[in-house]
Design brief:
Elements (H helix, E strand, L loop, with lengths): L1 H18 L9 H12 L1 H19 L21 H8 L3 H45 L1
Amino acid sequence: MRKITLFLVAATIATPAFARDRYDAPPQRDDVRATTRALSDPHVQAGVAILLDQLTTAVLDTRVGPLADVAPNSDIRPNDTIGSVEARRDPAFRNKVRMGTFGAVAVAGKAAGDAAAMSDSIDATAARLGRIIDSYRR
């Protein structure tokens, strides 16, 4: 369950990156920090989690009933959806997915904040490495 939620969060966050031209300039540091602040805001987190929950619901509403004939030994019924099959296996399934989604968004906000906090240190390390490499090129 957690893997599904993390996959959906990662896919949603990564989708804009796939849409970018590979030659676009990286986002400005201020934009990254603003995004980090937004992802750390509980109201924004709730909005993102609600969006992800709606996307998850759309996927879980996918009808899989026609597979009942193909997989006669399964517990799939003719009118089943992904969600109904999982709900039969685990009655708390839907609530677990929802709570996992909200938790994953909160973790993403924390991770973004941690990454932004490290960005100055990473820049300094990259500069030091560049100076070392340049000294060997001379």
